[in-house]
Amino acid sequence: MSDDALSVTGAGQELQQWFNSVVVLIEKAESEIAPEAPHRDAVVLNLLTKNAREFRQAGIDRNGALYNPLCFFLAAACHRLSVRLGPGHWERAVANVIALRNQLRVLSDASANVGLDIANPVRLLKEQVDEALTNAGVAGVPTYLDAENRRLALGLAVNWGIRFLCAYALECDVPADPKRRDLGWIRNLLAHIEAEGTPLHSS
Amino acid sequence: MSKALQDYRSLERRLWLVRWEQEGRESAQEDEILEEMDAVWGRLDDEERRLLNNEGPRCWPFEQGGWVPTLADAARQMPPAQLAYTGFSSVDETIESVERARAA
Fold first, then answer.
1. CB–CB of B17 and A152 under 8 A?
2. Which tens digit of pLDDT belongs to each residue from A173-190?
3. How many angstroms separate the CA of residue A37 from the nearest CA in chain B?
């Protein structure tokens, strides 16, 4: 791992490149299923709603079961929003998750003394993603929001979703394969930064 | 909630989304929204301005500790649905029309 990757900024760049490769792969698959643009929009919408539903209904595990639906959902949502996630999006997500984990670790130690179980960051972030998916109307549950606010909710779902991915990776037990860039790779990337206690950059 | 506060919240949400999509870079869309927000700010009363100042801005997606915008009031902003069927006969009208048809 390069020295650059050990900083939050470096991790943001690595994650952006990784996610771009995921998006390119999924877009290629979409084009093969539906070469024509209007049909491709239907394929994207189907990918979005199917994986949003699967993610929302699933519980949290440590084996990486949420990795697939989450990546498909993020790629389809970005396509739907016509947004390309940049290094800044990922850098902010990494910084937020590391700060959140530090804060909750301190709270968790204090709460254990009074027998309270403070939620862990993965659970907190999943709740945010689930709420945003519901508001966006993409998870098979009714929403009362108009089109403009559903679009915002979808953006929030992506925003929370990339934070969830970082927190989920840090707590998963998936072994890292040096030949692959998958959940185990993300975990190792972020774990190094957390362990080094690299100063977090503010925008 | 006053219309002015609803409008301000709606603009906050739009601003957050534009800044998020642009990764925090400045854009013409952002400038337009900020101008609208200035105009709406003038329509808020003192209590509403105090509320917004106390809670802090919700439209900086790339700020450390920045809040996301609230959608709590968004559902109330939906315009009434335009129903496809706009007329109906009351029970009396229906009975009268049936009797008229029979008489004819």
1. yes
2. 999 888 999 999 999 999
3. 23
